[in-house]
Design brief:
Layout: H1 4-8, H2 24-67, H3 73-83, E1 92-96, H4 101-112, E2 116-121, H5 129-141, E3 145-148, H6 154-163, E4 168-171, H7 185-205, E5 211-217, H8 241-260, E6 264-269, E7 272-273, H9 282-292, E8 295-300, E9 308-309, E10 312-313, H10 314-326, E11 344-349, E12 355-356, H11 357-368, E13 373-378, H12 393-399, H13 407-422
Parallel strand pairs: 1-2, 1-4, 2-3, 4-5, 5-6, 6-11, 7-10, 8-13
Antiparallel strand pairs: 9-12
Helix pairs in contact: 4-5, 4-10, 6-7, 7-8, 9-11, 11-13
Bound molecules: uridine-5'-diphosphate-glucuronic acid (UGA).
Uridine-5'-diphosphate-glucuronic acid binds near residues 177, 218, 269, 309 and 357.
């Protein structure tokens, strides 16, 4: 007679072969035995699945508990305090990319006039994170808390909306840089598309929904030749993957406006520069190289034509951002559903007076009192466009936007900051 163990775990299929010489009773017993075997098997599988699932959720919550850099009573307290509004009819703004160049300046301006500001930044190493940490310290000293986290982290973003009923989101977190897109294309999709969608999902679900103002780019005008660039011009021939992801952002935000009633304002920034700027941009690393006596490479367009940019000073951009928040109008959705039409706007924020790259270098030389070692080469096919020039009449009309700083004045302020921050010590950080 086979043991129970042998019944449950037959070592060979032959053990279940029916012996023709056995009685009906024996066959019934066999049948009963095989039904109970199946039952026990089913029980075993259910138990196995259940324990696997609970183990998974333990691992999940456990790993978040042990590794997350966010959460806790103190953390929530800092967020609430940072979001507090100190003026009548003020706003509470979630600023993404708050340790970034534009993000840090906008955060400071909002806080200064009494709005509540909470920042979020992932402090990635696309450029020197110590500069981001320095911006963070500056913001902290003014009572602005920056959450260390990624906009792709849906749970974190949802948590922030649980803690604060943000009236506005100033979305400035992005993978920036035109030429780096050839080196690391996926980082652009990750931040500028994946991150954007994660953020918009949270905004659409939030109750009340915030109004969203976000950074697009002048690069969406791509290879257009008609100048100056107007918001109604075509934007379907981007020259870089960076530009393509920003253009995609404009389409994606449109769908969230259309389906969920989110108020959306997209700002096409034109080559923003100034103190605490981005070290990956030409004016910044030209300054460093000139001070260190290293050569700089100046790109030149077709037929030896100089490249030109509508360089825009940071303070003018900040005014445009703040005016966009002030005039954004309300989102109309609730419970993830649209309740009526909401504003969808796009504005150029430029300086509307393009300057060539060689002129930029001349101005830097004058302010630095050092001669540059020039290396002029034909523009490589790496995503650059030959020129940019903003038509800003729409922003002027709707936002009261009026840039007041020309490149000469703006670079003087930048150089003053650069020398204070890094010192004359050949462009190396002194702190
Ligand atoms: O306004 C915009 O849409 C974009 O402005 C800048 O992009 P870009 O204008 O290319 O700024 P830089 O990288 O600082 O280049 C400025 C000019 O210097 C030129 N350049 C750059 C690098 C170099 O080594 N040599 C050189 O001549 C470029 O061709 C360009 O004409 C920013 O990097 C983008 O993030 C932003 O979206």
């Amino acid at each position: 007679m086979p043991s129970l163990e042998e019944e449950l775990f037959p070592s060979t299929p032959g053990k279940f072969k029916i012996d023709r010489g056995h009685t009906m009773n024996r066959q019934f017993n066999r049948c009963f035995a095989s039904t109970s075997t199946m039952f026990l098997w089913a029980l075993f599988l259910i138990a196995l699945t259940a324990s696997y699932l609970s183990f998974q959720s333990f691992v999940d919550s456990g790993s978040r508990y042990f590794t997350a850099s966010w959460g806790g009573i103190q953390w929530e307290k800092q967020i609430r305090s940072s979001a507090q509004i100190h003026r009548s009819k003020g706003m509470s703004v979630l600023v993404t990319g708050a340790a970034g160049f534009v993000g840090s300046h906008v955060s400071l301006a909002l806080k200064k006039r009494g709005d509540g500001v909470v920042g979020i930044d992932n402090f990635n190493s696309y450029y020197d994170p110590s500069l981001k940490k320095a911006r963070k310290s500056l913001l902290n000293s003014r009572g602005i808390f920056i959450v260390e986290g990624d906009i792709n982290d849906a749970r974190l973003i949802a948590k922030l909306f649980d803690i604060v009923a943000f009236t506005h989101v100033m979305h400035l977190a992005a993978q920036a840089g035109v030429r780096y897109a050839m080196e690391n294309p996926h980082s652009y999709v990750h931040s500028n598309i994946g991150g954007l969608v994660t953020l918009l999902e949270a905004c659409k679900t939030a109750n009340p929904q915030p109004a969203v103002v976000w950074a697009s780019s002048s690069s969406v005008y791509g290879l257009n030749e008609k100048v100056p660039f107007s918001e109604s011009d075509r934007t379907d021939q981007p020259a870089s993957l960076y530009a393509a992801t920003k253009k995609a952002g404009e389409e994606i935000t449109h769908t969230y406006n259309h389906i969920y009633g989110l108020s959306i304002t997209g700002l096409r920034f034109f080559t923003v520069y100034g103190p605490f700027g981005r070290p990956d941009m030409a004016y910044f690393f030209f300054t460093r190289n000139i001070l260190q006596g290293k050569p700089i490479t100046i790109f030149r367009g077709k037929n030896r034509v100089d490249l030109a940019r509508d360089f825009t000073y940071i303070d003018d951009i900040v005014k445009g951002c703040v005016a966009s928040l002030d005039t954004s109008g309300k989102s109309t959705g609730s419970g993830g559903k649209k309740r009526g039409p909401a504003p969808y706007r796009i504005f150029n924020l430029g300086n509307t007076s393009p300057v060539t790259v060689p002129t930029l270098v001349h101005i830097l030389e004058r302010h630095l009192k050092v001669k540059a070692k020039r290396n002029v080469v034909d523009m490589p096919g790496n995503g650059d466009v030959p020129f940019t020039h903003a038509n800003i009449s729409l922003a002027q009309r709707e936002l009261g936007y009026k840039p007041t700083t020309d490149l000469e004045t703006g670079l003087k302020k930048f150089v003053k900051w650069y020398l204070t921050y890094y010192g004359y010590n050949r462009g190396k950080a002194v702190h």
